[in-house]
Amino acid sequence: MQPSYVYEIHMPPDFDPKKNYPAIFTLHGKGSNEKNMLSLVEPLLHDFIIIAIRGDLRLGTGFQYYELKSLGNPIRELFDKAIQQLEDMIRYATDKYPIDPLRRYLLGFSQGAILSVTLALIMGEQIKGIVALNGYVPDFVKTEYPLQSIQNVSVFVSHGEYDSVFPIRIGKETAAYMQSRTPHVTFHTYPTDHGVSQENQSDFVNWLYEDAGLRQEGK
């Protein structure tokens, strides 16, 4: 099977082919690309396999995973296709690389965060945890998708208090919905617009190390 997406893979610098590693699949925002996510996960490169996935649809100088009818209203056919392709991509990468299937994480920003929470809800405990930065759960996912238990899935949700794309209310609603499905939710807000601050990055990096049972270098 060939994956539907272009991706970059980064192995730990002291990679041992006899070991399995925790993996983070990164999903970028609308109009961006996989390289923009790498700066966010740079502090994790030493201990995690990073798979940065590029959307397959062009948007200006960047990419997206699906198109919108309007803000917050995905074209359902394209959204469904993206979810299926990403699920296939996660399985493909797990078979191809020395990834620990019990420590697979999704980390997404904006459109990538929307996809991350959706994938967690339909893949359930096949995913260890997600980091959802400035996203939300589409209503049709809550009501029409075949949702799995995420009782043991770890969730980090963060949102900008001054987000001009998805207002802070949406971030709080996302956190509340995920809290209704798993007790393992961490929710933070930051005094930012639609972006990721250095404090936000530091918080999710620490969270990922702790959740994966790893010791961060220098700590």
Automatic annotation (TrEMBL):
GO MF, one example: hydrolase activity
Keywords of the record: Hydrolase
Highest rank taxon of the organism: Bacteria
Domain Phospholipase/carboxylesterase/thioesterase: residue ranges: 23-203
InterPro entries assigned to the protein according to its UniProt record, in alphabetical order: AB_hydrolase_fold, LYPA1-2/EST-like, PLipase/COase/thioEstase
Keyword Cell inner membrane in record: no
Family: Belongs to the AB hydrolase superfamily. AB hydrolase 2 family.
Protein name, UniProt field: Esterase
Species this chain originates from: Paenibacillus foliorum
